[in-house]
Specification:
With about 210 residues, the protein is α+β, with helices and mostly antiparallel strands. It folds into two domains: about 120 residues, Impact, N-terminal domain (Ribosomal Protein S5, domain 2); about 80 residues, 2-Layer Sandwich (Alpha-Beta Plaits). Helices cover about 30% and strands about 35% of the residues. Helix 2 packs across helix 3 and helix 4 runs antiparallel to helix 5. The radius of gyration is 23 Å and the shape is elongated. The protein starts with a strand and ends with a strand.
């Protein structure tokens, strides 16, 4: 089971012109092949007069898949460059599309490769590369006095915390990576003299902080 993966936060775009040809890069987080196809379909709608719609994408949901296409460009000058941008940053669960409007001047295989790679690389940067880590979550239940002690110590130790719910007592979803679960339990028990309760509440992926 993987403990972390890298993807992008949002859709990113980048555009540049090379000897009259216009290259528009699009990058988006995805989960499934259908998500990747949706980005490609949208690019064709947004840029209906373009000559080429080169793409590459990777995901491991529900199983590992990756695809790329030169879409009529000379073999090896487009799709492979986009895939290498994803691989070079170890980006998963993301799709890239680079749209090209032909400007009438041939760029050669080297020029095409560089232009596609630039559009892809900058679109990915604009999409905000981010790492997500696997986190085991627990429902913490404590009285107000114990929670006052716990809240700051959990934050200082870097454990995941959702906003607390206040009622008769306090409830809060907290979490830790697999290697820190026992540390979390010990902190909760020692800070509350064993009065606070932790109950397993599932798994989620959380954004890794700086």
């Amino acid at each position: 089971m993987i403990e972390s993966f890298q993807t992008v936060r949002r859709q990113g775009t980048f555009e540049h012109t090379e000897r009259g040809s216009r290259f528009i890069g699009l990058c988006r987080p995805i989960l499934t092949e259908e998500d990747a196809q949706a980005l490609l379909d949208e690019a064709r709608v947004l840029y209906p007069e373009a000559r080429h719609y080169v793409y590459a994408w990777r995901t491991n949901q529900p199983s590992f898949l990756q695809r790329f296409s030169d879409d009529g460009e000379p073999r090896g000058t487009g799709g492979r460059q986009l895939l290498e941008v994803l691989l070079g940053r170890s980006i998963d669960r993301a799709a890239l599309v680079v749209v090209r409007y032909f400007g009438g001047i041939l760029l050669g295989t080297g020029g095409l490769s560089r232009a596609y790679a630039l559009a892809a690389r900058e679109a990915l940067e604009d999409a905000g590369p981010v790492t997500f880590i696997r986190c085991e979550t627990f429902l913490l239940q404590a009285d107000y006095a114990d929670f006052h002690q716990l809240e700051g110590r959990l934050a200082a130790a870097g454990f995941f915390q959702e906003p607390p719910e206040f009622g008769v007592g306090v409830k809060q979803v907290v979490g830790a990576t697999a290697d820190r679960i026992e540390e979390l339990r010990q902190l909760v028990m020692s800070s509350s003299a064993g009065r606070a309760v932790l109950a397993a509440s599932g798994l989620r992926w959380i954004e890794q902080g700086p």
